[in-house]
Amino acid sequence: MSATEVAVAERDSNRIIELQLSERAELIEKASNADFIAYLGPMFPPADDQIKDVVEAVSPRRPSLLILLETGGGFVSVSERVARIFRHHYERVEFIVPSHAMSAGTVLVMSGDAIHMDYASVLGPIDPQIPKNGNLVPALGYLEQFERLIKKSEEGNLTTAELAYLLQNFDPAELYRYEQERELSIALLEDWLVNFKFKNWTTTEGAGVEVTEEMRRERAQEVGRKLNETGRWHSHNRGIPMEVLRRDLKLLIEDFGANDALRGPVHDYYRLLKDYAMRRTHDEGFVLHTKESYVGF
């Protein structure tokens, strides 16, 4: 085959796969009675602009949106903007996580009215990631090490080597920035849980006590605090499965694996989308898909 024939054959096969993806996306929309968008990739610009363009192009529009999300995390500010875009266009927003949504992805998932996972899905601690020397680093690790060294200094136990490390590696302005990123993650998570995830929590289980706004706020603060406890999870990249989120954080998580209408279509769609992204060499970048379009970069 000539180079032109190979290009034509590849284009045609891509078109067939994208048609299959669209058919599977339509099945998910019917099962969930919601518009459906899939995003695989980090929470970095220009993902927010791309998501905005795709959401604005949806027509006609249902009242509800279901987002299939897979992300290793990124910038909380991007998650904040994406959540605002979703809420501008939809009355109800739900997230489905077939694999993982970490860090800023976890914060974004908490903006949903409902969270769908199965036994193999995980969320992550909400330790914000900060660019440093060309890499992303977990901010809480720096803050906790700084606080540990300061405590040792106050107790008179700081070694000469630790003092040198403290002076060389910790900049006050940088530490303040880390603190603000941490507070932003917690504040967004708390507000979103209270306003969306907990809005229909009206009575407590068992005793049936009426739930107040203050009780919702306290529960949201508890969730935010636990997701920020690095000592609890030990690693920024540690996945937190559905049963732990339910048991330890008392979060209501919908098990789509137990939903016959969703389980098959979601797994079939997700596997095909992942395979296609790898075929297009987009698996290390950004993938955004609706039944109308595939965007990879």
From TrEMBL:
It comes from the Bacteria. GO terms for cellular component: membrane. Gene3D superfamilies: 2-enoyl-CoA Hydratase, Chain A, domain 1. InterPro entries: ClpP/crotonase-like_dom_sf, Pept_S49_ser-pept_pro. PANTHER family: PERIPLASMIC SERINE PROTEASE. This is Serine dehydrogenasease.
